[in-house]
Amino acid sequence: MDDVSIRAASHEDVRKLIEDRYDRHHLLDHLHHRRGILLLALVGEGLAGHLFLRFAPPEEPELRDGLPGVPLLQHLRVMERHQRSGVARRLLAEAENRLRALGHGRVALGVHPDNHRAIRLYEDLSFTAWRDRHLATFREHVLEDGNTVRVQEPCLVLVKQLAPPSG
Ligand SMILES: CC(C)(COP(=O)(O)OP(=O)(O)OC[C@H]1O[C@@H](n2cnc3c(N)ncnc32)[C@H](O)[C@@H]1OP(=O)(O)O)[C@@H](O)C(=O)NCCC(=O)NCCS
């Protein structure tokens, strides 16, 4: 865990380090459209995890209207062999620090209601439900030939209040 470093990523980093077809496709698209910052957790030169901080308005109209100007955390993933050693916590802490420094008072994210591991992590970090009702959203799967298909998915939206930076 001590040898984990976190830094913002370039397109080149994504091409070199991110093998998962879904993450690679969407992260390259987000960076291309300058929707936010991609944080990478690295152990040496190897990828341990990633998290995207989205400043562009969300795709879902309900989120655009209900949480205007609130950045969204997306694409949190920790590689299997690095899981359960605090990498997600480190990525989330770095994201929160950066957002506070930029003057944001709140952050939001969406999680599948069955993803108990992730929900436990977020609740532990003081994220709370934005509303009880799930949001109907779409997950855009990337096929082997590069085409995408949209599959409807429920999403639990969580928010967190960010304290102003100290000092
Ligand atoms: C969810 C995920 C990001 C957690 O990453 P991680 O680096 O293993 O998490 P951490 O080591 O920082 O653990 C933080 C907390 O998360 C929770 N957690 C993580 N893995 C867990 C597991 N297998 N079972 C139960 N709780 C778990 C625990 O509360 C844990 O705290 P603890 O270790 O003190 O009990 C990782 O499992 C993952 O990449 N999953 C697949 C992708 C995903 O679901 N992303 C979230 C999308 S919203």
UniProtKB/TrEMBL annotation:
<dbReference type="GO" id="GO:0016747">
    <property type="term" value="F:acyltransferase activity, transferring groups other than amino-acyl groups"/>
</dbReference>
<dbReference type="InterPro" id="IPR016181">
    <property type="entry name" value="Acyl_CoA_acyltransferase"/>
</dbReference>
<protein>
    <recommendedName>
        <fullName>N-acetyltransferase domain-containing protein</fullName>
    </recommendedName>
</protein>
<dbReference type="InterPro" id="IPR050680">
    <property type="entry name" value="YpeA/RimI_acetyltransf"/>
</dbReference>
<dbReference type="Pfam" id="PF00583">
    <property type="entry name" value="Acetyltransf_1"/>
</dbReference>
<feature type="domain" description="N-acetyltransferase">
    <location>
        <begin position="1"/>
        <end position="150"/>
    </location>
</feature>
<keyword id="KW-0012">Acyltransferase</keyword>
<dbReference type="InterPro" id="IPR000182">
    <property type="entry name" value="GNAT_dom"/>
</dbReference>
<keyword id="KW-0808">Transferase</keyword>
